[in-house]
């Protein structure tokens, strides 16, 4: 069996997508979505935890995201997990993680 790098999320945009053009002329969209889970703890109190997931998209998908998605929009994103290493301004080695979106479905508008 081969490996699989696939992630699926349903969440809401924390801000409008940031649009850029790469050096090769490709359109790029970046944004974060909030994904929350809710549960009752042992005492019966309602708990909630929110994680922020960084999303990147390129090409036609990025153009569609830039045109139709706004802060608060609920979306389904399917893509692959990716990480990149970089050196911060303080000289410390860091790792950034994001999801490279391959498909997107708009579930609601903001």
Low-confidence stretches: none
Q: Tell me the helix content.
A: under 10%
What count of helical segments does DSSP give? 1
Computed over alpha carbons, the radius of gyration is 16 Å
Strand percentage, roughly?
Answer: over 45%
* β-strand number: 6
Q: Give the SSE order as H and E letters.
A: EEEEHEE
Major β-sheet annotation: 5 strands, mixed, barrel
The CA-CA distance between the termini, in Å, is 41 Å
Task: Give an overview of the whole structure.
The chain is built from 1 helix and 6 strands. 9% of the residues lie in helices and 62% in strands. It is mostly beta strands and 110 residues long. The model has no long low-confidence stretch (mean pLDDT 95). A 5-stranded mixed barrel has the order 1-3-4-6-5. A hairpin with a 5-residue loop joins strand 5 (74-87) and strand 6 (93-108). It has one helix spanning 59-68; strands at 7-13, 18-21, 27-40, 46-58, 74-87, 93-108.
């Amino acid at each position: 069996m081969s490996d699989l790098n696939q992630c699926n999320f349903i969440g809401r945009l924390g801000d409008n997508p940031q649009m850029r053009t790469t050096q090769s002329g490709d359109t790029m969209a970046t944004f974060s979505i909030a994904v929350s889970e809710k549960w009752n703890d042992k005492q019966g109190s309602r708990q909630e935890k929110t994680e922020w997931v960084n999303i990147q998209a390129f090409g036609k998908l990025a153009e569609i995201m830039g045109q139709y998605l706004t802060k608060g929009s609920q979306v389904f994103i399917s893509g692959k997990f990716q990480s990149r290493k970089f050196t911060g301004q303080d000289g410390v080695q860091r790792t950034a993680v994001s999801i490279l979106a391959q498909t997107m479905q708009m579930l609601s508008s903001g």
